[in-house]
Specification:
By secondary structure, this protein is an all-alpha fold. It contains seven helices and no strands. It has helices at 3-6, 24-35, 49-57, 71-83, 89-104, 110-142, 148-186. α4 runs antiparallel to α5. The radius of gyration is 19 Å and the shape is globular. The termini are far apart.
Length: 188
């Protein structure tokens, strides 16, 4: 497994975001440059006009002015990009609702919030490296004594299955948090 490619720095940092507003094609190019190494194959697109338009129609971020995307829009699109791998569009909208409102009203320092997010992702990478090594070791241990012709394949199947299980647990925990936010919003 190409561990280094898997955990490569694949975030858009604040310093990567230009201090000028961008048109959609420029936004797409920025994301392609930042996340191209994370795609499974060359046909897979990181971000498309349709995706951005759907995010806008779904009100996942506050309205764009004059077809130009601000730094805040780019931060929100970067968050959406990361979240969409595990959460539904409706869940992402619920999760980012307060962030969007606070940013649009000038009551939230989105740059600072995003820096906190980036710091957590760096810590997550370190934890992931350790956990992946432990999971791989456990999978190798579990297949000992099985048919040697199949042990390498079975080890990979077992490891992949275990990782998917962990992913599902994390996704379910994130969905619970989204549900809690929805319920808190309903009670206000």
């Amino acid at each position: 497994m190409e561990l280094e490619k898997l955990i490569a720095e694949n975030q858009i940092k604040l310093e990567d975001i230009p201090h000028i507003e961008l048109y959609m094609d420029q936004v797409i190019q920025l994301f392609e440059n930042a996340f191209a190494s994370t795609t499974r194959n060359e046909e897979e697109k990181v971000l498309t006009k349709t995706m951005i338009n759907n995010y806008a129609k779904g009100k996942l971020f506050f309205p764009v002015k004059n077809k130009k995307y601000s730094k805040e829009h780019l931060i929100l699109i970067a968050l959406i990009y990361q979240l969409k791998g595990a959460l539904s569009i409706n869940d992402i909208k619920s999760l980012l609702n307060g962030v969007n409102t606070g940013t649009e009203e000038g009551k939230m320092d989105l740059d600072h919030f995003y820096e906190l997010y980036l710091d957590l992702t760096k810590r997550n990478v370190d934890a992931f490296k350790n956990d992946l090594e432990n999971q791989a070791g456990r999978a190798a241990e579990e297949v000992k004594g099985l048919n040697e012709d199949q042990s390498a394949e079975l080890e990979k199947v077992l490891l992949a299955s275990s990782l998917v299980h962990m992913s599902n647990l994390y996704r379910k925990a994130a969905e619970r948090i989204v549900d809690d936010l929805k319920n808190e919003g309903d009670h206000k």
